[in-house]
Amino acid sequence: MSPSTIHNVRRVYKVASIPADGIGPEVISAGIQVLNKLATILDEFEFQFTKFDWGSEVYKSTGKYISDDGLDLLKGYDAILLGAVGDRVRENTEGEYAGQGGRTHIGTPWEVATEVAIFSRRVVERLMRFAFECAQQRPRKKITVVTKSNAQRNGMVLWDEVAAEVAKEFPDVEMDKMLVDAMTVRMTLQPDTLDTIVATNLHADILSDLAAALAGGIGIAPTSNLDPSRKHPSMFEPIHGSAWDVAGKNIANPIATFWTAAEMIRWLGHDGAAEGLMECV
């Protein structure tokens, strides 16, 4: 979507703010202050924040995390800034978190549970192409494809095949492939050999926490949920979660939110402003 402008000079970005649970309200409040201050100093753009009081308490009382028209409401925004979700709310259409499977003969000695991962060529191809595009834009033009096709012989084999096919479209991008277990060792001992990494939901869930710990701690890392088509607003949130043990004490470190804000600014097309914020961080 195209942001509105003021006198064709200063862009105005509409941002949906969802502080949600735990320390979310505290760190998002700090992040908004920083974003507004940055906008004032640079005078290149400004933000209009709209707060949505969605969270686990709403889910517990209504059975719904957001209102029925929530998705339609969010379509009108340029970005979403999320604090933290405290209770289980995870909806994915594909990957290991697709929610497919079930349990039978519950409570009996022969109880069986299945957890089915979903991989379609269309979605894997979209993800791979976006990952290669990201790698292509970075100075090293290097990507590592994480897999486990030596043991997972269906979805992960498709994953590898699509990666190899998409790689042919990006001859200037160097690609290598790494089994997920070996990847943990490489990240720990040879992080300098890595740049852009593409992995499944489950693998990236684990590896991103490892990356955050290696970089200084999970409490300072950002995360972005990006729509490559830009037809819908992308969502940005600090990776640390709700941290209920320190919630309400005003001692939560907002650095991860500042870094997340920088990622949001970069996605909106202001690399210089993002770099300036990161220098402050």
What does the model show?
The chain is α/β, with parallel strands linked by helices and 281 residues long. The protein is built from nine helices and eleven strands. Strands 1, 2, 3, 4, 10 and 11 form a six-stranded mixed beta sheet that branches. The chain has a three-stranded parallel beta sheet with strand order 8-7-9. It has a two-stranded antiparallel sheet with strand order 5-6. β2, α1 and β3 form a beta-alpha-beta unit. α1 crosses α8, α6 runs parallel beside α7 and α8 runs antiparallel to α9. The mean pLDDT is 92.
Keywords:
281 residues, alpha/beta, 6-stranded mixed sheet
How does the SSE layout of this entry go?
Elements lengths: L3 E3 L3 E11 L3 H19 L2 E7 L4 H7 L7 H5 L4 E6 L10 E10 L7 E7 L2 H17 L4 E6 L7 H13 L6 E6 H10 L6 E3 L2 H15 L6 E4 L8 E5 L16 H13 L3 H10 L1
Parallel strand pairs: 2-3, 2-4, 4-11, 7-8, 7-9
Antiparallel strand pairs: 1-2, 5-6, 10-11
Shape: globular
Topology as H/E string?
A: EEHEHHEEEHEHEHEHEEHH
**What is the residue-mean pLDDT, rounded to a whole number?**
92
Uncertain runs with pLDDT below 50, 5 residues or more? none
Quantity of strands, as a count = 11
Task: Give the C-alpha Rg.
Answer: 20 Å
